[in-house]
Design brief:
- The protein has 11 helices and 22 strands.
- With 418 residues, it is an alpha+beta fold.
- It folds into 2 domains: 143 residues, DNA methylase specificity domains (Adenine-n6-DNA-methyltransferase TaqI, Chain A, domain 2, Alpha-Beta Complex), CATH 3.90.220; 182 residues, Adenine-n6-DNA-methyltransferase TaqI, Chain A, domain 2.
- It has a 4-stranded antiparallel β-sheet. It has a 4-stranded antiparallel β-sheet with strand order 15-21-18-19. It has a 3-stranded mixed β-sheet with strand order 6-3-9, with no helix packed on it.
- Strand 4 and strand 5 form a beta hairpin.
- The two termini are 19 Å apart.
């Protein structure tokens, strides 16, 4: 069996922290950059890139090349993904590390090594900070990686990458379905080109002109529950490796759901949060911090679940509104900007309260149109559910293989290189 060697990361890779964001001091050409919020485990969120000024001499230092690994320094430190030139000329901000593998080290193998370390909470020993955790460069350089010969690295990365390729394919299909739902909502309820719209008169409303026969309602009038959770007994340090899912703000994006940061609580902790048990088709809304106003439905296969204090349950009264209409309305550009404006009006930090959410106004179409939309959007949602379950199963299978491959327990020496 091939010999595996152990190295400190700083010995086998070039490490660089991104550029400090300082609008008063930064010079150069405005250029898109990655921030912490753009990095998930294994993928990048590139829909809403920010821009910072970079000078020409800074492009080598803070720029990305194919095969670089981008890792979060804070805000979920250790979380990382492989850069594959998704956007040319991309730069990074100080909240991120750029890790560039040296000769003899495969970037795919190194990424999966990090993923294995993250699953075992192996980065925790390198964190600094009592409350807000960080992974500074000098600590990252000490992270130990176990490295076999390059052909073995490539075989291992190829096996694991095959799972991620299937996951990525399912996720692309999920995004297509999500875009279908968004476009249908915009066509019917923003541009008012719904079935039978021809010749419809418009009337004034608090939200602007709406078709005659439509109404403006407060969320509190069309929901059966609006409420946020709390910190489970014992706090964050008491999370379990299995049990009832605890949904946190870092799990919720617009429409989509992040599986990699799922937390679990035991039966006693879950009982203490019984009043915020998530039900099927509940709309979950982030109410604090940088992710405020993000909104999604939790996949039904993750139930039973609870929410913590940063997430609100917005439960539709189905006799008055379709939960899918509610989700799409909150996630629409118009309402999203309104929610963000309310949240940013807080005295200390961005936040939405139960009263703010309850008083928030949306337009409601007639019952027949609402029902028709709910059927179509519900069908799209069910297709997403099937794909999300496939993604979860593939991730589960990959993560079972991961430690066995990364420890050499499974011998891949006889397999051909990918």
């Amino acid at each position: 069996m091939a010999q595996w060697e152990q190295y400190a990361l700083g010995e086998v890779a070039d490490l660089c922290l991104g550029k400090m964001l300082d609008q008063n001091k930064n010079r150069g050409v405005p250029t898109p950059y990655l921030a912490n919020v753009n990095v998930r485990w294994g993928e990048f969120v590139l829909d809403d890139l920010r821009v910072m000024r970079f000078e020409e001499h800074e492009r080598d230092r803070y720029g990305l090349k194919y095969g670089d690994i981008v890792m979060c320094e804070g805000g979920g430190p250790g979380r990382c993904a492989i850069w594959k030139e998704q956007v040319p000329g991309m730069m990074i901000q100080k909240a991120l590390h750029r890790i560039r593998p040296g000769l003899g080290l495969d970037y795919g193998f190194l990424y999966y090594s990090f993923r294995n370390i993250g699953l075992r909470r192996g980065f925790d020993q390198y964190f600094t900070g009592a409350t807000i955790k960080h992974l500074p460069g000098e600590k990252l350089a000490k992270v130990e990686v176990h490295i076999p010969p390059l052909p073995i690295q490539r075989r291992i990365a190829g096996i694991l990458c095959a799972y991620d390729d299937l996951i990525e394919n399912s996720q692309r299909r999920i995004k297509i379905l999500e875009e279908m739902a968004r476009r249908l909502y915009r066509e019917w309820f923003v541009h008012f080109r719904f079935p039978g719209h021809q010749g419809r008169r418009f009337i004034d409303s608090p939200l602007g002109e709406i078709p005659e026969g439509w109404e403006v309602k407060r969320l509190g009038d069309v929901t059966s529950k609006i409420g946020s959770g709390a910190t489970p007994k014992g706090g964050k340090g008491s999370y379990k490796s299995e049990g009832t899912h605890l949904i946190r703000s870092l799990n919720i994006y617009d429409y989509s759901f992040e599986f990699d940061n799922l937390a679990f609580i035991d039966d006693i902790q879950a009982a203490g949060l019984a009043n915020v048990e998530v039900e099927e088709e509940d709309v979950l809304l982030n109410i604090t911090g940088a992710s405020v106003a993000r909104c999604a439905m939790v996949p039904s296969h993750l139930l039973p679940a609870r929410v913590n204090q940063h997430v609100a349950i917005v439960r539709a009264d189905k006799t008055k509104v379709s939960p899918f209409y509610l989700l799409d309305a909150i996630n629409s550009d118009f309402h999203k900007q309104q929610l963000l404006a309310f949240a940013q009006g807080g005295a200390t930090r961005e936040a939405l309260t139960k009263d703010t959410i309850s008083a928030f106004q949306i337009t409601l179409p007639p019952a027949a149109l609402m029902s028709r939309y709910g059927q179509i959007a519900g069908s799209i949602h069910l297709q997403r559910e099937v794909l999300l379950r496939q993604v979860q199963n593939l991730r589960f299978a990959r993560d079972i293989l991961l430690p066995r491959l990364l420890s050499g327990q499974i011998d891949v020496e006889e397999l051909p290189e990918p």
